[in-house]
Design brief:
- This protein is an alpha/beta fold.
- Helices cover 42% and strands 22% of the residues.
- The chain contains five helices and six strands.
- The protein has a six-stranded mixed sheet, with helices on both faces.
- The chain is globular.
Length: 130
Amino acid sequence: MSRQKILLIDDEEDFCYFAKLNLEKTGNYTVFTATGGREGIELAGQHKPDLIVLDVMMPRMDGGQVAQALLEDEATRAIPIVFLTAVIREEEVSKSGGRIGGRHFIAKPITPEKLVESIEYYLSLDKGTE
């Protein structure tokens, strides 16, 4: 079985490092990380990940702007995006079924185990299985 590709775009380098480490430790994922929006857009175009985990609040180019750029590019528009945010608490995300405004969200802070579980869940949604 081939590894699924995950692109993590978050301005917190430590978070990227530990998330990548924990996801790749499962043996199921190849993880690419970007600490800025432009870099993330470039990596998405290069690697065509199976899922993008995108921080909402970043300097220079926020998650909404990155998502818009990805949606406007024919090469990346079909890649599912899950937003990552510290603005919304886990309880709020859980109550809304993981969606806010029609978009999927993961609340920060998040444990490595919960991150892996969330990514597995969102990847299964894209395949039509729940």
